[in-house]
Structure formats: structure tokens, C-alpha cells
Automatic annotation (TrEMBL):
NR LBD domain sequence ranges: 135-391
Pfam families xrefs: Hormone_recep (PF00104), zf-C4 (PF00105)
GO MF term (any one): sequence-specific DNA binding
Listed InterPro entries: NHR-like_dom_sf, Nucl_hrmn_rcpt_lig-bd, Nuclear_hrmn_rcpt, ThyrH_rcpt, Znf_hrmn_rcpt, Znf_NHR/GATA
Keywords: DNA-binding, Metal-binding, Nucleus, Receptor, Transcription, Transcription regulation, Zinc, Zinc-finger
Keyword GTP-binding: no
Name this polypeptide is given: Ecdysone-induced protein 78C
Organism ancestry: Eukaryota, Metazoa, Ecdysozoa, Arthropoda, Hexapoda
PROSITE patterns: NR_LBD (PS51843), NUCLEAR_REC_DBD_2 (PS51030)
Length: 399
């Protein structure tokens, strides 16, 4: 890491510093050597620029030492830097700023190598590969930051969470009906429906905050905002349930589903809301996903790949496919890194198999919501929840 910190400023000023040393150029400053030197104005004062080179530790000897330095070690250091940034407790802005400097440094390195004679073509090709690799790391970094900022189910967010059951009020509970009493049976059916409606309203209230979070997560994915607004809307509306299920999967077991506030719905309550077969399929998918033991960063990348899936009605399917391919490549790199606590070298193939399973589950979920589209007058849902799932709303809910 120490050499990395020295190499970054060297990348930013390497050509200028080398020329200054080799030609023994003397500079003067018109502002008493107090100029602010940044990338945008670095050519304004050569004296202060050279002074900054010395201040960050560059030297005549370093030019020759660096020429013999193995570039792969530098990029290994950048990988370590990326990993430490994910695990760091430093403010998000500091992590992002340092990582952007690293990317800028390697970009400058590529430009500098592209200007050398043809004898260095092999090194330039290596530089191109290195920059492409770092671009993948940039995708990992951006998606990881977005996931940590906009997912309420990360390890940090759920650490120390106190679980509490979702208890149906006594007024909505029912007594077993006698088969010989049709009126009692009818009353029980009505009570079961009222329980279902009550549970759905509680469920919707707790899901709704995730709608805005998934929207913000999507907006921070590389390339997403370059898609047309219609395509963005389709991806978010159709893919929301699948992405949300990815996020809450870590808080889902065979017997319950726990929300951000610690409230958990039992399997029986979920079966009352949906249907037993659907809940069984849901639990199976979340169990399979949990078996991969994805880290928060890997789950963020997987969620991005789920969102960037081909959907009916998309205008630019190829553009969406390219974005998904970039994310899947980033997920492959992340899960196959030499050191780490991820899912392992063969994880990408197995994890990718969950994407069509989630898509099929999302389609079943949309069909199950038809009951609410037909009976929307019986329940009061948060407007944002109704909007994301295309459930009709009262005019007063829109105000």
C-alpha cells in the first residue's frame, strides 16, 4: 500500500517530473510558491507543480526504480485498496475520493504509455488490459457503495436487530367453525379475509421504504441513467420484487421473514397472504441464495444483475444486456479474487442460476396480486406500494 500511495502522484505527474529532471529545467513562481496545484490547473505554474512532486516524495531515483517495478503488483495493491475500502469505517466520501484518484492515476498511466515508441507496444497492451480490469473494479466499487447506502438488510444494518412477531389483533382473529353451522363458517371466511387484508396492509407498510431505496440503488448503477426513462421504469417496476427479495433473503428462513424494524411474519401468515405453494417456492429460492453465503458486496452485484434483466416492453434490450454483462463480469471477478471471504471460484455460475428462478417467482407474485387489483377498494395501501405493483388507488391516496 505504501508504494501505491507513492505511485499515484507519480502517475499524475510522471512525464512533467521526468522532463524537468532530465533537462534540468529551473522554474519560477509569480505567487511566492503558493499556487494550488490540482489536475485541472496543473499547467498554470510549473514551479509549484515541481514543488508538489517533491512534496509527495518523488525523486530522481524513483523514475528509474519505478521502471523496474512490476505493474501487476501495483494493480494487486489497487485490489487490496478496493477491498479495504469496502471494509473501512472511514467516511464514504473519503473512500470514494481515494478510489477515484486511483482510477485517474491508471488512466494517466495508459495515456502516457500510448505516447512511447513502438518498442513499448507490449507494455501498452498490458496497460489496456490493466485499465479494463480497473474499470471492472470501478463497477464493483460503485455497486457496492450503492448497495451499502440503499439496502436496509446489510450486515451492518441488521447487526443487533431485535426480532418481534407480527401479532394479529384479537378483533381479527377467528374461532374454529363447526361444519354443521353454515353461518359460523361464513363468518370465519369473512374473518380470514379480514386477517389477510390486515396482514397485507402491515406487509405493504414495511415493504414501501424499500421501493425508494431500490430506485436510488438503480440510479447509482453504472450506465443505468443512460437508458431511456421508459426502460428505467420498466426495469424498476418489473424487477423490484426480485431485487427486494434478494435484499431480504438474509433475513428469511424456512419459518419466517424479518423486516428492517425487526418485525417478522411467520410462514403461516405469509401463506395466508399468498398461498402455500408460492411461499414454499419463495422460501426455497431464498434458501438457495443464502447457501451461496454472498457478502454484502457480492449480493449488491447480484441484485444489480437481477434488476438489469431482459423484460417485456424494453426499447433497447441490447443496452440493458451490456449493462448486465458488465455487472456479471464484476461479480465473477469479485467472487474469484485470490483472498477474501466470498462464495468461491465457481460461485458465478451457480449464483447466476438463481436469476431465472427469481424471474419466475416474480411473475407468479405479479399474478397473485390480481386479487388486490380486483378488490382494491377493500384495503388501504401506501400509494408508492400500489404504484410499483400497479394496484388501483383512491383519489384521496394520491393527494
Amino acid at each position: 500500500m505504501g508504494l501505491l500511495l507513492i505511485a499515484l502522484p507519480y502517475f499524475l505527474f510522471q512525464g512533467f517530473f521526468r522532463r524537468s529532471i532530465q533537462k534540468q529545467i529551473e522554474y519560477r513562481c509569480l505567487r511566492d510558491g503558493k499556487c494550488l496545484v490540482i489536475r485541472l490547473n496543473r499547467n498554470r505554474c510549473q514551479y509549484c507543480r515541481f514543488k508538489k512532486c517533491l512534496a509527495v516524495g518523488m525523486s530522481r531515483d524513483f523514475i528509474f526504480v519505478y521502471a523496474e517495478y512490476d505493474r501487476s503488483r501495483l494493480f494487486d495493491s489497487l485490489c487490496v485498496c478496493r477491498k479495504r475500502a469496502y471494509e473501512s469505517t472511514a467516511p464514504l466520501e473519503i473512500q470514494t475520493e481515494f478510489y477515484e484518484i486511483a482510477i485517474l492515476a491508471v488512466s494517466d498511466s495508459q495515456n502516457a504509455i500510448s505516447r512511447v515508441p513502438s518498442a513499448a507496444v507490449v507494455e501498452a497492451d498490458q496497460s489496456d488490459a490493466d485499465v479494463k480490469q480497473l474499470a471492472v473494479y470501478d463497477v464493483i466499487h460503485q455497486v457496492s457503495q450503492a448497495h451499502h447506502a440503499h439496502c436496509g438488510f446489510t450486515e451492518e444494518s441488521t447487526r443487533g436487530l431485535t426480532r418481534k412477531p407480527m401479532i394479529i389483533p384479537a378483533s381479527n382473529s377467528s374461532q374454529p367453525a363447526s361444519p354443521e353451522d353454515p353461518e359460523a363458517a361464513s363468518s370465519t371466511a369473512e374473518t380470514v379475509e379480514s386477517q389477510r387484508i390486515w396482514l397485507w396492509q402491515q406487509f405493504a407498510t414495511r415493504v414501501t421504504p424499500s421501493v425508494q431505496r431500490v430506485v436510488e440503488f438503480a440510479k447509482r448503477m453504472p450506465g443505468f441513467c443512460e437508458l431511456s426513462q421508459d426502460d428505467q421504469l420498466i426495469l424498476i417496476k418489473v424487477g423490484f420484487f426480485e431485487v427486494w427479495l434478494c435484499h431480504i433473503s438474509k433475513m428469511t428462513t424456512d419459518n419466517s421473514m424479518t423486516f428492517e424494524d425487526g418485525t417478522y411474519f411467520t410462514r403461516q401468515q405469509l401463506e395466508l397472504m399468498y398461498e402455500p405453494d408460492f411461499v414454499s417456492a419463495l422460501m426455497q429460492v431464498t434458501s438457495s441464495l443464502n447457501a451461496h453465503q454472498l457478502t454484502d458486496t457480492e449480493l449488491g452485484l447480484f441484485s444489480a444483475a437481477v434488476l438489469l434483466n431482459e423484460r417485456p416492453g424494453l426499447n433497447d434490450v441490447k443496452a440493458v444486456q451490456r449493462l448486465q454483462d458488465r455487472v456479471l463480469e464484476a461479480l465473477r471477478v469479485q467472487t474469484t479474487r485470490p483472498s477474501g471471504e466470498g462464495a468461491g471460484g465457481t460461485a458465478i455460475t451457480n449464483v447466476s442460476q438463481r436469476i431465472p428462478e427469481l424471474r419466475a417467482l416474480g411473475a407468479r407474485h405479479a399474478n397473485l396480486l390480481d386479487w388486490f387489483r380486483r378488490n382494491w377498494t377493500k384495503l388501504k395501501l401506501p400509494p408508492l406500494f400500489a404504484e410499483i405493483f400497479d394496484i388501483p388507488k383512491c383519489e384521496e391516496d394520491l393527494q
